[in-house]
Structures are given as structure tokens and as C-alpha cells.
Amino acid sequence: MAAPVYNSSVKVSSASNVASLTSASWTIAGSNRYLVASANSAAGTTVDPTAVRWGGSGGTAMSKQGASLTYNSAIRRMSCWTLLAPTAQSSTLYCLWPSNQDNTALMGVSATGVNQSTPTGTIASATGASQTPTVNATTVADDFVIDMVGYWSDGTTPLLTVGAGQTSRLEIEGSPFLDDAWGMSTETATGTSTTMSWSGSGAFAPQWGIYAVPLKPVAGATATPMRSLMGVGLGVRLFAASQLRESLSRRKLFKLVGALLYRK
Predict the structure, then answer these.
(1) Are 192 and 246 part of one and the same domain?
(2) Which domain holds residue 247?
(3) Dihedrals phi, psi of 249, to nearest 5 degrees
(4) Pairwise CA distance, residues 146 & 164, whole Å
(5) What pLDDT does residue 241 have?
(6) CB 146 within 8 A of CB 186
(7) What are the distances in angstroms from CA 165 to CA 113, 186, 234?
(8) Low-confidence residues of the chain, pLDDT below 50?
(9) Looking at residue 228, what is its pLDDT?
(10) Res 61: pLDDT
(11) Quick one: which of 172, 182, 194, 204 could link to 139 by a disulfide (CB 3.0–4.6 Å)?
């Protein structure tokens, strides 16, 4: 089985007290597609999005996975959204909150080669108070893990650095966000546990939330090894040779019997 692979990504954010975000147009293509999105907000009263959609405000609704994560005394909130077989097209990612949120960020990463019957393993999540957001996902070799992180450090304009072995796909950080940073990354699993981590700058009371979504590969037919095919061919040749020898032996026997009868 071949591991799923990264296809494309998009991000959009606002520090202008809005209730919705719409990304620029981007393209999802390929076969056995899967889309993972991260919706983030900061406000005096944070709320979960009403909807996250692929294809604009009237597009296909994505599904929220598990409980939202809150940090920084619940005035930061993030949630994980997924969509099986998103339509292959160029369109926008859209998120709607039921009330205005001070800071908002929306990110999406698509992958191809994902099992359409059992697309994900167990989605892992964690929150903490340190400069190293970390979560461990239960995986098997060739799972393709997509993570999403939200990071807060008061008044420090924090920056994110992706963990070893991961590939950063999206980061939202720096001005105009004085306290917040968000990111998404990917890694192909090699064993039974895959650690997804980031490090954040700004040591003033940092807090964070993080998810990891393990995507399962398409189950493919196992090709017959060339060595096995060669073995089959050799067996056929040996069988043919034995049949030829047996045929020649019978001919010799008939000639011998004929000769003896003739002598009599």
C-alpha cells in the first residue's frame, strides 16, 4: 500500500472582529481525496463555527470531529473539520461563526490516496501550557498524519517552528496578530505512534491546542513478485523437460521390445 500524499492547501485570517471567513480560490484534484480543516477564533466569548464548507458559503458541509479545544482561559478556541471525497474543483473554503470573533483563522489541507471506506484512524488532541505543543497519534506505517496547532503567548507576536520529520504546510503568524499563531503540517508514519509537535517563540505564559489526524492509505492489490513469476516459469520448464524424458524413455522401451521380438 502506498501512503496518501499531500495535494494542496489554503489559509485565510482576520483580526477585524468578523463572523465569517472565505479563502482565496484553490484547487483540489486527484483520486481518493480527503480534506482536513482547522477553524480558530479568539474572543471574550469564543464559539464553535456554525459551518465549515468546501465550495464557498453554499458548498458542501464538512464534519466537525470530536470536541473543540480551548486554551488561554477559553478565550481561544479551535476545532477540527473533515470532508470525505471533496469535489475536485477550484473553489473556496468557508467558515461561519454564530457571532463576531476578534481574531479568526481558517486553514485547509487536502490529500489524495486516502482510503474512502476507512479514511482515518483515531484523531488525537491535546492542550497544554508550554512552548512545545505536542500530541501523539496512534498510527501504522504509511498513515499520513495531518496536524493543526493553535498557539498563544501574551503580547509577544509568537512564531512557530515545525517539529522534526514534519513538513509545514501552513502558518499564520506575526502582524497583525500580537498574541496568536496557527499552523498545519504533515508527516508519513513509520510505526505505531507518530509524534506531531511544534515549538513557539514568546515565553510569556504560552498556551496551546493541537490535533493530529491519521489518514489511512487505499488498500491496493499486492503485485506478484518477479522472483515468484520466475519460479513459476522454471517449474513449467522442468515439468516439460520431465515429460520429454518420459516420452523418450517410452520410445526406447518400444524399440527394445521390437528388437527382441524380431530376433525370435
Answers:
(1) no
(2) 227-264
(3) -65, -40
(4) 14
(5) 52
(6) yes
(7) 21, 9, 45
(8) 221-232, 234-236, 238, 244, 248, 253-254, 256-257, 260-261, 264
(9) 42
(10) 98
(11) 194
Question: What's the confidence (pLDDT) of residue 1?
Answer: 77
Match 500530541 to its residue by C-alpha cell: 135
Q: Are residues 77 and 198 in the same domain?
A: yes
DSSP letters along the chain, please?
-PPPEEEEEEEEEESS-EEEEEPPPEEE-SSS-EEEEEEEEESSS----SEEEESSTTSEEPEEEEEEEEETTTTEEEEEEEEES--SEEE-EEEEEEEEESEEEEEEEEEESB-SSS-B-PPEEEEESSS--EEEEE--TT-EEEEEEEEE-TTS---EEEPTT-EEEEEE-STT-SSEEEEEEEEE--SSEEEEEEEES--SS-EEEEEEEEEPBPP-PPPPPHHHHHHHHHHHHHHHHHHHHHHHHHHHHHHHHHHHHHH-
The cell numbers describing 196, all together, are: 506531531
In a domain, 77, yes or no: yes
